[in-house]
Design brief:
alpha+beta, 270 residues, globular
């Protein structure tokens, strides 16, 4: 989840970076500049889904193989593309107005921020509760028990337990991951674990880590109705991340593509 090697998480410089914002309860991190809360969009989501359904019944579609040829922005909430001043915005952020034709940025500035891995959207997976996808992700970097090689390595300090990280969201979970990655560098290991299995953390092709992230994201969407509504409200839009990602990032880093896959599954089942 780290941009440019071990440094920043998927383009995020971290909670101590310049002019960053917390996405939990919309509390300012440093400067007092605040994003709207993730959970502010229940009413807007309902309106978005209704308008999308109505427009689908009446809009004339242009036959084309291109997903942008039939793009009708009037079918979607206009605030998804409301321009935001770049002045004072964090360096990692892709602003809403940077979306191309037929695209939408999954911005934390409005209700589509629910789709972020950082969003506090609790879910249960394989019998355990997680506060967010970010907490689930970073938890895998931590020792599973006292016999774990990461726990027995001499001289390492683990500032959190695995269970504590599982209960985190947003930049708090990301910071816990930064601490764990520092220990991984010291150990010179490139694996993480889940249920006693070790597997590569950064793989160019979908592997066990990718499969776990996809499965957890699917559960997040299934178990949180407001997240499902937000995802379905995007209709046929091309989903784009709200932060800059490293070139050739592992497939699980591309959360917007995972969400597109899950959206297709939901639409087939409805």
């Amino acid at each position: 989840m780290f941009c440019g090697g071990w440094g920043g998480s998927r383009g995020y410089p971290g909670p101590v970076g310049r002019r960053q914002r917390s996405v939990v309860n919309a509390e300012p991190v440093q400067t007092g500049v605040v994003y709207p809360a993730f959970m502010c969009g229940q009413r807007m989501l309902c309106m978005a889904v209704m308008s999308l359904a109505i427009a689908s019944c009446h809009a004339h579609r242009v036959p084309s193989s291109s997903p942008t040829a039939s793009f009708d922005r009037a079918r979607y909430p206009e605030h998804w593309w409301t321009p935001v001043s770049a002045e004072g915005a964090p360096a990692w952020e892709i602003l809403p107005q940077e979306a191309g034709a037929g695209e939408v940025i999954l911005s934390k500035r409005h209700e589509l921020g629910l789709l972020s891995n950082f969003a506090p959207t609790p879910f249960t997976y394989r019998g355990h509760r997680y506060a967010s996808i970010e907490g689930f992700w970073q938890m895998m970097l931590y020792p599973e028990d006292a016999n774990d090689p990461r726990a027995t390595y001499p001289g390492l300090e683990w500032k959190h337990t695995r269970a504590e990280v599982a209960a985190m969201a947003s930049f708090e979970a990301k910071k816990a991951g930064d601490l764990a990655e520092a220990n991984m560098r010291t150990m010179q290991i490139d694996w993480v674990s889940f249920e006693g299995r070790h597997f590569p953390y950064r793989s160019p092709k979908p592997g066990e880590h990718y499969r776990l992230i996809v499965a957890a994201t699917r559960e997040k969407v299934r178990q949180n109705p407001e997240v499902q509504r937000a995802l379905l409200a995007t209709g046929e839009l091309v989903l784009r991340p709200d932060h800059h990602q490293e070139p050739n990032a592992p497939p699980e880093w591309r959360y917007f593509e995972i969400l597109t896959q899950i959206r297709s599954e939901l639409r087939r089942s409805h």
